[in-house]
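Summary for the funding panel

The consortium committed to producing paired sequence-structure records for every protein in the target list. Below we show the first two records in order, beginning with the earlier of the two.
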Amino acid sequence: MVEVGAVNATGSWNLSEVSVGDFLADRSEDVERLLDGIRSVARFSEEAMAIVDELGRFRDHEVPAAFLLLWSAGVTGVPQPLEEPEVVRRMCRMAADLQLTLFLQALVTAALAAGTEAGRGAARIVETLGVASSLADRTGGSAPGLVFRVWRVAHLPGILRVGSGAPEQGEAGFRAYDQALEHLLETR
């Protein structure tokens, strides 16, 4: 989400203008809120969260078009030239949609694994998803309500369908989060 946000922040989708370092410096409070939300929802320890820093994603680095192609699941194919601003813009939009939907799935799954009841965890997930959405695309193109609706149709049917193999407790947890998230996001 950070790289996609840094590219989107240029407004030109010209990869030579991207500075992940500048993007992060301007949004350091948002990054801290994001990490705090993840830590809270998943009940991760400080040691577990230290892995984030070790990965180097929150340091200045290049954003090659190939990364955007991977994060957007190759929906655009492999057009040439891959660095064309219109292609980069499309890959960023798809990558934001896909990565934020996967992020929401990871948050809900981590909350359930940590035993965080939906009534308590959903509000923090909505807050954290809002920060992530804003980091990915400040224009509102990746609003939490939209991410939620995509998550609901992309992930829940496979988990909640008859014969999915998901344990009853897991199904009940995902249903509870679906209802709690829907309630919170529809009242915004």
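The next record, for a separate protein in the list, is shown here:
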Amino acid sequence: MLHFDPTTTSGSAVASLFRAWCSLRDAGPARQPDTTELADAVEDMFACLGLDPSGPPAQVDPPGAVEAFTVFGLRYDRADALLVAGVIPGEHAVAAVELDGDELNFVRWADTYHAASGDAAAMAARAQVERGDY
């Protein structure tokens, strides 16, 4: 069972979110808050708790639930996309050797991610490339 304690940091954040929801709901007669307003309030709460709303889901996993994975693939520069070739456990990105050759708009990719699974590491790598953070 959940226990609400407004004296804790997370309880204070939940209380703040609840007050935001009440003010949105009570802004006018028969007015219902729209999803954008509610999503913004939740995002603000996450930021106040030190969470990055655009970050990986693994940031809320208990310590020890994440491990290092190295993602290998090809980055396609014309579409900001990453074609993942493989994911292996461990930090091996610094050991990756770039081979000579031209892949026509593709760049070899290797980076290490801390995630709960290989799939989560691959998703984080794709998201990083899609955002242009490489």
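Regarding this second record: The first helix runs from residue 9 to 25. Residues 109 and 118 are 16 Å apart (CA to CA).
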